[in-house]
Design a protein that fits this description.
The protein is an alpha/beta fold. The chain has one domain (25-111). Helices cover 22% and strands 21% of the residues. It has 2 helices and 4 strands. The chain has helices spanning 33-40, 62-78; strands spanning 25-30, 44-49, 87-92, 102-107. It has a 4-stranded mixed β-sheet with strand order 1-2-3-4, with helices on one face. The protein starts with 24 loop residues before the first strand and ends in a 5-residue tail after the last strand.
Length: 112
């Protein structure tokens, strides 16, 4: 087995223009609360709904999206982050089996 190599200095080019860093989105299964609490402390959330009885991913409805958004908003407010940008990315499968998922992002600051 080859030993791992150590990188003592590295430079990534081009340097990201986002400050203070590139946005970090956190994914996790909803309605599990721990990953969504973690997501609330970062720049965005990409919740995954558990599969339905057929094994297909559950499709988000408006009530579920509102529930997720409210949960994240509460936790961001508790952390003093309510005025910072935050994205909520919801994926929905297309009607045809071979079509790609549609992802909609939403800046939760515009909810108030």
């Amino acid at each position: 087995m080859t030993p791992p190599e150590a990188v003592l200095s590295a430079r990534h080019l081009p340097t990201p223009v986002q400050r203070p860093r590139v946005p970090v989105w956190v994914g996790g299964y909803w309605p599990a609360k721990p990953p969504m609490r973690r997501a609330a402390r970062w720049d965005g959330a990409a919740p995954i709904l558990h599969a339905d009885a057929s094994g297909k991913p559950a499709q988000p409805d408006a009530a579920t999206v509102r529930e997720i958004s409210a949960f994240l908003g509460e936790h961001r407010a508790a952390a003093g982050l309510e005025s910072e940008p935050f994205d909520l990315a919801i994926a929905q499968l297309a009607a045809t089996a071979d079509a790609e998922a549609t992802v909609v992002t939403h800046d939760t600051r515009r909810d108030s």
